[in-house]
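Section 5: illustrative case.
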């Protein structure tokens, strides 16, 4: 007889992935791309094209349909009646407002790529100064739910009056899946400029200043790994049984850290994807005095420091301009390779990344003791060798892919098996190479 399954969903910017985790590891994966599979929502890259570059919005029903379709597709690959628990991770931040009947108040929701809240961020920083960062983990951030709510309340006071519930993407999707107002986990709540990291509850004064009546409109903050409700009939698709427990949803970055196998104290994970992101676990929150980096709560416990730097697209452009394939690119980055535009760019980009992550280190430490690398760029030995030289630390290449959906599935699996996250990680983490400093 086959054992139970835990389902993990990654509801990211451009699509949805659903993954089935069993006792032996990942058993199946299904993907949905918003542009190709749900063209009726007019968001080929995950947001409705807008000539105003600062406006990046999407129809929340697209995310919901994406989840349903991904689950149906997963059900074509594996017997989903074996599923005993489910959880998900969404793109962080975003603002979804619903009325007292749970209906959307605004047809489109700003997502994390939206940057139309410049004025609101300035107002929040002016009112609270550095204490906003020290208490919530981040200086006022353009893409966070709090500033987005402040802007909504200002530009559509009538719609704001009708708003009964204010969700980020994760807690809204969680609400849809369980068919009742769902709580938010600390990780998603900490991406809103509204959560007090020391109490793991809303900072009432900050929320009250952010928008009129906001404290009453926010969901309750759940404990990580707690059950948020049970799967509603509307999502019992692909063979899934209605009524299975839904573990509270989290955010994509915190779940990605789980899915990558976590990191020990003093270590970091570097994801070389569309952007380069450095994550490091933290026992106690220490925030970035420059205001650039963020501290979020972890998806299972503790805190997570994050710095995300654009640059990967530029790196690829310079590589292509130099006429280099991936092997040639790697060779151009070795210690012995002569100076070139490719080498200079990559060196200064990683040096910038190191400088911007110094605040994550414990007192007295001068660098990370070890780095685990993942993402498309981690396939290049040359790039990882350069990362090791610039950060002066050994770099491990991780085998894991789909780490966001896997992290969500791991959290649901704790319920199926009673295993701890650390035990699951130790079983699934696989290092395929170690590249020295
Ligand atoms: C992190 C952030 C992005 C989104 C992408 O703060 O805004 O990484 O979570 O999905």
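Designed sequence:
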């Amino acid at each position: 007889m086959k054992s139970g399954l835990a389902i993990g969903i990654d509801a990211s910017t451009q699509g949805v992935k659903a993954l089935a985790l069993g006792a032996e590891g990942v058993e199946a994966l299904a993907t949905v791309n918003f542009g190709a599979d749900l063209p009726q929502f007019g968001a080929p890259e995950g947001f409705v094209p807008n000539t105003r570059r600062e406006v990046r919005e999407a129809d929340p029903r697209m995310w919901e349909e994406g989840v349903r379709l991904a689950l149906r597709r997963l059900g074509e690959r594996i017997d989903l009646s074996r599923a005993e628990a489910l959880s998900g991770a969404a793109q962080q931040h975003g603002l979804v407002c619903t009325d007292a009947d749970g209906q959307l108040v605004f047809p489109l929701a700003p997502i994390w790529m939206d940057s139309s809240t410049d004025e609101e961020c300035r107002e929040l920083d002016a009112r609270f100064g550095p204490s906003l960062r020290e208490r919530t983990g981040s200086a006022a951030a353009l893409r966070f739910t709090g500033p987005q709510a402040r802007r909504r309340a200002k530009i559509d006071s009538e719609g704001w009056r009708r708003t009964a519930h204010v969700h980020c993407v994760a807690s809204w999707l969680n609400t849809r899946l369980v068919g009742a107002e769902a709580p938010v986990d600390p990780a998603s709540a900490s991406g809103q400029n509204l959560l007090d990291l020391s109490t793991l509850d809303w900072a009432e004064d900050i929320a009250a200043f952010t928008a009129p009546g906001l404290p009453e409109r926010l969901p309750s903050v759940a404990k990580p790994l707690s059950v948020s409700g049970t799967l509603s009939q509307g999502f019992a698709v692909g063979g899934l049984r209605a009524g299975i427990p839904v573990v509270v949803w989290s955010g994509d970055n915190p779940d990605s850290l789980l899915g990558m196998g976590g990191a020990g104290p003093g270590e970091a994970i570097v994801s070389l994807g569309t952007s380069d992101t450095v994550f490091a676990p933290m026992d106690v929150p220490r925030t970035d005095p420059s205001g650039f980096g963020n501290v979020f709560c972890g998806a299972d416990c503790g805190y997570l420091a994050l710095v995300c730097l654009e640059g990967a697209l530029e790196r690829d452009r310079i590589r292509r301009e130099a006429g280099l394939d991936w092997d040639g690119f790697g060779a151009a980055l070795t210690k012995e390779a002569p100076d070139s535009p490719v080498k200079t760019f990559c060196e200064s980009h990683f040096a910038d990344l190191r400088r911007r992550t110094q605040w994550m280190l414990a007192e007295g430490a001068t660098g990370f003791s070890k780095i685990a690398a993942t993402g498309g760029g981690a396939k290049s030995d040359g790039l990882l060798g350069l990362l090791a030289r610039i950060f002066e630390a050994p770099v491990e290449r991780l085998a894991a892919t789909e780490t966001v959906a896997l992290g969500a599935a791991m959290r649901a699996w704790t319920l199926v098996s009673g295993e701890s996250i650390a035990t699951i990680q130790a079983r699934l983490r696989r290092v395929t190479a170690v590249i020295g400093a």
